[in-house]
Amino acid sequence: MSTNLAEAAVPGTPDPELIDDLVAANRILSDHGVLDAYGHVSARDRTSPQHYWISRSMPPAQVTAADIIACDLDNKPLRAGETRLFFERVIHGEIYKARPDVMAVVHNHSPGLIPFCNSDTRLRPMVGNAAFLGEGAPVFDIRTIDDEGDLNICTVAQAQGLARALGSQWLVLLRGHGAVAVGNSIRQMVRHAIIAETNARYQLQAALLGPIHFLTDSEIAFARRSQPKDPDRAWRLWKERAMRKS
Amino acid sequence: MSTNLAEAAVPGTPDPELIDDLVAANRILSDHGVLDAYGHVSARDRTSPQHYWISRSMPPAQVTAADIIACDLDNKPLRAGETRLFFERVIHGEIYKARPDVMAVVHNHSPGLIPFCNSDTRLRPMVGNAAFLGEGAPVFDIRTIDDEGDLNICTVAQAQGLARALGSQWLVLLRGHGAVAVGNSIRQMVRHAIIAETNARYQLQAALLGPIHFLTDSEIAFARRSQPKDPDRAWRLWKERAMRKS
Amino acid sequence: MSTNLAEAAVPGTPDPELIDDLVAANRILSDHGVLDAYGHVSARDRTSPQHYWISRSMPPAQVTAADIIACDLDNKPLRAGETRLFFERVIHGEIYKARPDVMAVVHNHSPGLIPFCNSDTRLRPMVGNAAFLGEGAPVFDIRTIDDEGDLNICTVAQAQGLARALGSQWLVLLRGHGAVAVGNSIRQMVRHAIIAETNARYQLQAALLGPIHFLTDSEIAFARRSQPKDPDRAWRLWKERAMRKS
Amino acid sequence: MSTNLAEAAVPGTPDPELIDDLVAANRILSDHGVLDAYGHVSARDRTSPQHYWISRSMPPAQVTAADIIACDLDNKPLRAGETRLFFERVIHGEIYKARPDVMAVVHNHSPGLIPFCNSDTRLRPMVGNAAFLGEGAPVFDIRTIDDEGDLNICTVAQAQGLARALGSQWLVLLRGHGAVAVGNSIRQMVRHAIIAETNARYQLQAALLGPIHFLTDSEIAFARRSQPKDPDRAWRLWKERAMRKS
């Protein structure tokens, strides 16, 4: 039923603000090296929560507004005949189903995160704006679902397992693969993805100096109940830089 | 009283040289990656020591002369109606109060310094021009003041604690946060901030090779009583490169 | 006899698609820092397997279609009078002789690989698309052939030793020197060379965090019997970026 | 006597080829990050060995042919009234006196070399073209001469000590300071400086993987008695890139 409502509402109303932010997210994350040729970014429709917007299968660095299409939460394109689709878009649908608070999702192969994907050392917050990492980013091992494939998330069962590993967090690492970051908005998701990457570099370097003082439980708890100050300042700078290059 | 004098002198006389150097400092430190979207730079007025100049709240990479405003040492803008102000500008006022010799202040999240912020390993001078680091940069832990916030320096008590941790040094690290560098001029402050960042990278790399031979006490003492040779040579090169990009 | 056939077929028919991909490979690998001034890239002729195409001796970043010449598998140029030839082109001929499945070869000094060239630690796959590294890239030590030279591969005996060390793999490291990556197409060879470089960086960083979970045997075996999904997406992005810079 | 001859020959004959290479050396080494605002490069006059050419005191990235002046081996400018001179130019004169085979000298603060300047771990050759590092680059400690200064080489005694530490090698590291690379030509000196920097990064990374297999004594000895193959290929690429940026 909500699907019917959504199908009525979405196709005619691509929210220009959301599309603009989604294009910017693709460019910003590419410009930061957080997205390579194969990552993908989506945003849940703000009036029709059973749908999300995502680019056709292409390098995120090259995405324009004309490349954005709508899918339902079973990852079926709303418009018939769409064929250039990301194989792994099932990640997006299953996370939106499992997490009603999530409005944006990115799957990437963020280079600083890969070492933590394949390690027992947890990625933990080094600085205040990384408090969203909490007690440490969970790592999803696809072998907990099946052990027959190429490590890509291609089935509903795999994506559901990934969503379970994510739980109520904002970042989950994928063993031998990459990461998924989510946010309550496109801009928050972009912050999470960029901050996770820089935090990983800080933690790796700090490990060379000896024991690391991570954020305290109290600091993590504070961040969970408060808002960041002026988060759009970074967004505007990042966007200006990313769009200038293209 | 001195405030009255200052209020009379400052508003009409934004020193063009100081403003030009302050804009250049914003650009140079951004160009070096020492400033991200959230750092801020200030300079004490040269004729009215109870006032300082700082940009409105914005990414330092985008600062122009028109964005610079004057504040008193209680961080109140001289001109009524200024609303786009840095939350953490209290850092600047309290340091200028505590350190009459300081003429410029930067607060940043310099990436090479973060590992040292969260470590018991002290940042120590690897090369002659880093002698200002002395026996090692102090680390300010905001929990020595209170443990209720998001690690940002938002209150006078926190900023006073930070100024005490800085003491008579030129750089203080902030656990889980970043750093504050100061100088007896804008250009010296910029040197301190850039050299601290590169010194951190050198020290981190050297730690991989085994025990490190830091500057000796005698070398640190010599640097304290002498002047660097031709410091403006680097300033001119840095400025030329930073301004060309904008 | 096959040489006669080939000599008849090749000189008049430089396959424009192959030449275009070979120029792009030179540029892409230079743009990624995988090729410096001294590496070289070749592709086997698709209709005349006893010949390969390679640029004249020059920095790969500057190669254009006009610089590409044909050689037989004894590394003799087809056209008389060619003098600007790579000293180490013997690598290409001997690998094409030993590996009929190989259609493209690059010899480089990929910076991330050098540490593994001089170590007993094997380069092993961190992520799915690096599964081609298998149980670990072999290291060729030129001293197993002779110990009289400058580590360059200049003789048939040295190149045959290198081809033996490569065996049925896609990458071989050369102690104190660099690497050779091969592929069943130019584009696959480029992928191998770029992924090897990034995988090396991931592995090095992960080593700082503790024991590393590499791909499992089952995951490596799966990759061996399957095709990558949409490999040309990265190729197009890389090519667009590399050609724009020149 | 030779000085008289030289004074007669030099002032009127700035060798255009040498000047062109010297300007390019300044730009190339800046472009590689091997020279910062404070390094300096010189070349011995090819017909008058008692003189050398060097830029006025300025950032090497900005040097043009008009900035190059001649000095005698006591570092006195040939033309009266030159005042913008490098404080540390005594390095050049003393090395040219001690090493008749040396035709070019660079003093830099090459970032990858600093960790080795302050360590007991020796910089040793990882790859064939770094064989000039021999059994390991010597480290000059200025305290072996005196312990009263800022680590800069300002006196003849200090520069003579540095030249003794260099001995018959091509690179000497300066504790807490940087490096001096020399060559039998400008181009060889540039190669030495760039290769030393990259070799340092390779060695640092390899140290993370375990014991390192450096070049063997036999390989080092071979390199000492042979010539590199086509060294100008890198020079041309480096020059083209460096000059395009300015």
Q: Could you name the key traits of this structure?
A:
homotetramer, 246 residues, seven-stranded mixed sheet, 8 helices, disordered N terminus
Question: What would you note in describing this structure?
Answer:
The structure is a homotetramer of 246-residue chains. Helix content of chain A is 37%, strand content 13%. By secondary structure, chain A is α+β, with helices and mostly antiparallel strands. In chain A, strand 1 and strand 2 form a beta hairpin. The radius of gyration of chain A is 17 Å and the shape is globular. The model of chain A is unreliable at 1-8 (pLDDT under 50). The A-B interface holds A 125-128, 131, 198, 201-202, 205-206, 208-216, 218-219, 222-223, 226, 229-230, 233-234, 236-238, 240 and B 36-38, 57-59, 61-62, 87, 109, 111-112, 114-121, 143, 147-152, 175-178, 204, 207-208.
Low confidence ranges of chain A: 1-8
Q: How does the overall form of chain A come out from the CA principal axes?
A: globular
Helix content of chain A: 25-40%
Largest sheet of chain A: 7 strands, mixed
**Number of separate helices of chain A:** 8
Order of helices and strands of chain A: HHEEEHEHEHEEHHH
Q: What's the β-strand tally of chain A?
A: 7
As laid out across the biggest beta sheet of chain A, the strand order is 3-2-1-4-7-6-5
Straight-line distance between termini of chain A: 41 Å
Oligomer state equals: homotetramer
Q: Main interface pair?
A: A-B, 32 and 34 residues
Q: Give the percentage of residues in beta strands of chain A.
A: 5-15%
